[in-house]
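Suppose a colleague, Dr. K., hands you the sequence of a protein chain of 425 amino acids and asks what its three-dimensional shape might be. Before reaching for any lab equipment, you can write down a predicted structure in token form. Begin with the sequence itself:
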Amino acid sequence: MFKYLNQFIEEIKNNKEMMKGSIISFLFKVFGYLLGLIIILLISKNYGSKGLGIYSLSFTILSILVTISCFGFDQSILRFITEYIGKNEKKKIYFLYKTIKKYILSISIILGLFLFLFSNWINNFFQENIPFKIIAFVIPFSAINILNIQFIRSFRIIKISEFFRNVSIKLLGIIILIILISFISNIYIPIISISIAIIITFFLSNYYIKNKLLINNYKQIKKVNIKKLLNITFPIFISCILALLLDSTDIIILGLFSNIQDVGIYSLCLKLTGLISIIYHSIIIFVVPKISQLYWAKKSVKKIIKFTSRIILILSLPLLIVVILVAPIILKIFGEEFIKGHYTLIILAISTFINGYVGWVGALFKVIGLEKTFMKLIFFTLILDIILDILLVLKFGMIGVAISTLISTTIIALFSVIIIRKKLK
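The predicted structure, expressed as tokens, is then:
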């Protein structure tokens, strides 16, 4: 084990630039996670589980609509800009950004108008009125902001991109929320606060791109191959939307079939298990590129995979044990009514632990040529999760949804291991 630890440390020394970017990204992610907890604490203390439920359901739906609006362009832009910089075709970058921005803006406005016009009808399906009209207004700002963040990141300006991604909206949201809570008593104030923060961040990211990255005086620009762009973007979009739906299904199912208080408690439990996720995500940021490099060089990667799983086990298991032992105490910090979610928190923590210890190998699918297989696996798991959610929520409420998540997470983790093992034989 120490042999591979030494090799891992040596690899870090040899890839200082990549590791520096990964560490910066990780630190911003941790800081953003803590800011997110502060927002949830403010909401739970002032509006209870009902207010937190409306907030969580609103932004879950916003995330889905924004992902549809982006249509995978926010991911493919990284590849194209890297390609253009490598070929010294920098003039294409401006046209690429403007073209993608036009597509995303058009889709987001259409979705926003649809949601705004049919908001009352859609609310009939939920147990509580959701401020869909506010969400509808924010969709274009949020979608373009995500594009801007990815555009900035493609130039390897990690600090700025991660600030806009993980910090800006949450920090501004906290400030605005504290101010508005002091003057206005309305359960939608948290949603309004974060929406304002999204709009401000949109203008900030646009300002940065316009003044720091783009040169607006190109007179003759060779157009980008739109067909090629769409061919690459569509599979990415399908993968992204399937993964997001898999993460969002629980909240939406609870919103449809249970009460909004359960949505709030469940969303808090999900947030609290996020610390375990951050631990294994921070490790695979370093490891996956190395595994990809070794795999395509036709070298064995089995030992480094085993080593990575051990490291994740060592770092994640103590957190899982703490959650199991003191779950009610942790939840009580956010309010007495949240204590009823302690079994849900334990189940979700176990699910996150399994996903980290076993399921992290799913991150390897995209770097060893198994993208389509991974897409099929996510689709199968999503269907299974939806079916189990509906069956179990009616009888067991949020605990049933947590059990469904545990089952689907375990299945996708085990199948990921089986497929990767078969591929590496």
